[in-house]
Structure formats: structure tokens, C-alpha cells
Amino acid sequence: MARAAMGTARRAVSATVVGAVSTLALAIVVTSGSEASAQRSDNRAKPVMFIHGINRNNPASSDCEHDFSAMRTAFRGWGHTAELATVGYYHHDRGCDFSIALHGSHSTHYGGSAEHTNDGGHSADTDIRHLGYHLAWTLWNRHSRHGRSVDVVAHSMGGLITRYALAQTERGHPDFPPYLRVEDAVTLGTPHGGARWYSIGCAYDQCDQMRAGSSLLRWLESNAWEPDGLGGTDWSTMGSDDDSAVAADRAAGTANDRDPSHLYMGSCHKTWYRTDSNIEHSDYLYDTSPAFTAVAWAYHRCSGGWTLYQLPWPVRRADFAVTYGTE
């Protein structure tokens, strides 16, 4: 697990919390004492935030309850005792526990009228970097400033939003909070190296940003190799040979021949499900089997090479990844 030291916190941070009706200016004073190093806790007692991917409906909208109900039920059954919250970011999202749009300013960090719908919400043309900014302030306001560490499980584009939020916070960008407490981050089918079909079948700006070689993906590879929250963040990335949206190597963050040198993303834990397992892009969310019968390559702890295993299926694999630093 990477344990990069955080820079000195900015002494005063001003955040604008945007509500559905009104805007509230929130002054937050941060002292160096609040940056005490976080210790890893290998348990199922931390809150988990579930973040969905892109939606190409018109208007863009995801149903969080549909996307994550199976995963949340499985996590609860496997012993998770804290909040299991689904996160929305599109204006027309439904069934989500809360929206990142309520945290931060709509005019800041690649924001403004061009990034929002006529009624003021986010759409599939909203810059992923702007969503990362909102997510960072959501994590800060709900958990980090209260001294709570959280885990994040993100599907598809949600992983890029999470990665950008942690990276800019760690880099000390003035638009972002002083630090974030994210102990584990798991990405499922996230196009760290670019998506397959977005480059030809989608005209939205978010699709452009997920094309291989986009300026966003190049920035992430150069500046967000394995971004850390306060005390370190353990990253796990999953890909599948049967994912028709994102190729396995680009989701796991490695060369297509599994060369020991990483590409796209420096996650310490990588899972590459083979075609025998038949895991499509949406199966990361719904395949809750606890059996160790999925055929996959695994790369552990940023050392050694790839090993072919029979591993848990994606949801159970995600559960282990947010629970243990060795998974």
C-alpha cells in the first residue's frame, strides 16, 4: 500500500455548499492537529460509498437502487455494519442516497453554465474533473472533516471521478479540501486506459474524456498514478476479457500481456477475469456469488508477478478488497 506523505494543510479552506434552493458559504478552519496520521483498519466497520458510471440516456440518469441493491445486500450479509451509501451526480439520477451536487460550487473547477443542464444539474456533458471536485467536497463534508475513514467502490466512469478527486486533493489544489480519508478504493471496469466503444458510439463530452489518449487520461497517468488519501489509500482495479465496454488490461491498469510493469494505473491489487468467467460490464455489480470459482489473473501488493487463480466473483472480490489491505 502506498503511504505517500501529505503536504502541509492549508490553514483556511472555504467551501460553497450548493443546496437545491440556496447557496451556503461554509468556512472551515483546518489545523495541523486534525491531520493526525490515519491507521489502517482491516474490518467491515467503515462506511462504503458506491459510485455509478456514465449513463447515456437523454437526459442522463442512473437508478442507484437498481445498480447497487444486489451489492449492498451482499455486503450487509457478509458483515458490513456501517453506512452503505449510493452516490448520485446526474441531475436526473434516482434512488441514490445523496448527490455530490450539494457539496461544492457549480461554478468552480471546470464548472459554469456550459457544464450544467438548463435546470442547473449535471449531465453527460459535465466535465469529469468537475464531478471529481464535487466528490472531493462530498467526502470531506460527510466524513473526512469528522475524522472518519471511508471505502469507495466505483463502477466504470465512477472510478475516474474518484481517482481525480483523490489526486487533486493530494496535490494540494486550492479548489479541493485539505485532505481526504479514503482507506480503500475499488474500481470495477473503469477505463483507466480508455474505453472500447465510447470513441465511436457516443457524442457526450464524458465519452470524449474516456477515449484512449484523451487529455484527462494522460493527466491521470502522469499525476494520479496511485493517489493517496490521508494515511494512504489501497487501490484495487478489476477488468474482464468479456467486458465489451472496457478492455481488461485498460481496466486493471496493466500491459495487455500482463508485463510486470504497470500501465495506466499503479494499483497494488489487480484482477483480470478470464473469458471463462463470462463477466460483462454490468456483471461487476450483480455477480454476488461467494464461491472461489472465477478464473482470473491476480497481481498483489505491488510486488511479484501475475498468478492464475480461482478467485471470488466480482462483488465478493470487492468486499475483500475494501476489507483487507492484502487483497
Report on the structure:
With 327 residues, this protein is of the alpha/beta class. The protein has a single domain (48-323), classed as Rossmann fold (3-Layer(aba) Sandwich), CATH 3.40.50.1820. It is 24% helix and 19% strand. The chain contains 9 helices and 11 strands. A hairpin with a 7-residue loop joins β10 (294-299) and β11. The longest helix has 15 residues, at 128-142.
Q: TL;DR?
A:
The radius of gyration is 18 Å and the shape is globular. Residues 1-37 have low confidence and may be disordered. It is α/β, with parallel strands linked by helices.
The whole-number mean of residue pLDDT values reads 87
Strands of the widest sheet, in order across it, are 5-4-3-6-7-8-9-10-11
Binned, the helix content reads 10-25%
Strand content: 15-25%
**Nearest-angstrom radius of gyration?**
18 Å
Number of helices: 9
Q: How far is the N terminus from the C terminus?
A: 10 Å
Top CATH class = Alpha Beta
What's the CATH topology label?
Rossmann fold
Report the CATH superfamily: Alpha/Beta hydrolase fold, catalytic domain
Low-confidence stretches: 1-37
Largest sheet: 9 strands, mixed
Provide key terms for this protein:
nine-stranded mixed β-sheet, alpha/beta, globular, disordered N terminus, about 325 residues, Rossmann fold
Any chance you could write out the topology, listing elements then pairs?
Blueprint: E1 12-18, E2 23-29, E3 48-51, H1 64-77, E4 84-88, E5 98-99, H2 128-142, E6 150-155, H3 157-170, E7 182-188, H4 198-201, H5 205-209, H6 215-223, E8 234-240, H7 248-252, E9 269-273, H8 283-286, E10 294-299, E11 307-311, H9 314-323
Parallel strand pairs: 3-4, 3-6, 4-5, 6-7, 7-8, 8-9
Antiparallel strand pairs: 1-2, 9-10, 10-11
